[in-house]
Each structure stands twice: as structure tokens, then as C-alpha cells.
């Protein structure tokens, strides 16, 4: 059974104090998680790295890279014990609003072909499957997994 959280949720930029919490969630959510270096590099590059907090509890986070009239969602994660409660949609709403405010016309993302749950969330949100990237993600035993490319017209 998933944990239920009652405190008001808020988005705030990732800070150094939360990085260890983000890494713990990342490692619990994925077989091939991002590293500390991936997050630090994203911050140094000026990407939008936002955390979703419920009180003092990290519910999730996203990393997005701004381009010319588009934003590329690089990572969006809800802590496993809070999945299925609508937090991903809340973060997608925040990302869409931020992107529109930056003049973006499109949102882009890749998702593992095996991650059908995430694809369903994205499709319900309005993203369309527009392509595939072969051997995009690392997989077990040195193999690679394809990615589905999805986009959303803002």
C-alpha cells in the first residue's frame, strides 16, 4: 500500500541539502539511476532542477533543459512510496507552465519502451509518441534498451 501524504506540496529548486535525498529516491526508483554527477552537471548547466516537497518529505523532482522554443524533460521521478497519487501530473503541470513562461512551444522527452506506466501517464497528459531511439538506455548485462520519443505541443 502506498503512503499517503497530507501536507501541502510545493515546488522548489534543488539545493545541496536535498541532493542526498534525491539520490536515494533515484536509486530506489530505477535500475540504472542517475549519478550525483548527473545532477550536479545539470545544475551547473543551468537546467531547471525542481523538487516537489510535502512538508519536509521529498515527493519527487524533475530536470528540464531549455532549448530554442522547446524544453526537454530529462528526468521526472516520483518517490516509489508516493507513486499513483497524482504527483507526476502536478509536476508535469508545473513544467508546462514554466515552459510556456520561457516561450517554449514544445515539450520533449524520452521514456524506456518497457516503462508502460510512465507512457500511459504522458499520453493521458497529452504527449504523443513521435519516434524511437534505438539502444538509448543502458540495460542489464551490458545490453541497451530503446526509448520512445514523445512530444507535447504547448
Question: What keywords describe this structure?
Answer:
single chain, Aminopeptidase, 154 residues, alpha+beta, 38% strand, seven-stranded mixed sheet, 4 helices, globular
Q: Pick out the low-confidence regions.
A: none
> Helix and strand string, N-terminal first?
EHHEEEHEHEE
Count structural domains.
Answer: 1
The overall strand count is 7
CATH superfamily: Gcn5-related N-acetyltransferase (GNAT)
> Might you state the CATH topology name?
Aminopeptidase
Distance from first to last alpha carbon: 35 Å
Characterize the main sheet. 7 strands, mixed
Rg over alpha carbons: 15 Å
Helical fraction equals: 25-40%
In DSSP terms (H or I, runs of 4 or more residues), the helix count works out at 4
Please report the first level of CATH classification, the CATH class.
Answer: Alpha Beta
- CATH architectural label: 3-Layer(aba) Sandwich
Mean pLDDT rating? 94
Strand proportion: 35-45%
Structural class: alpha+beta
Overall 3D form: globular
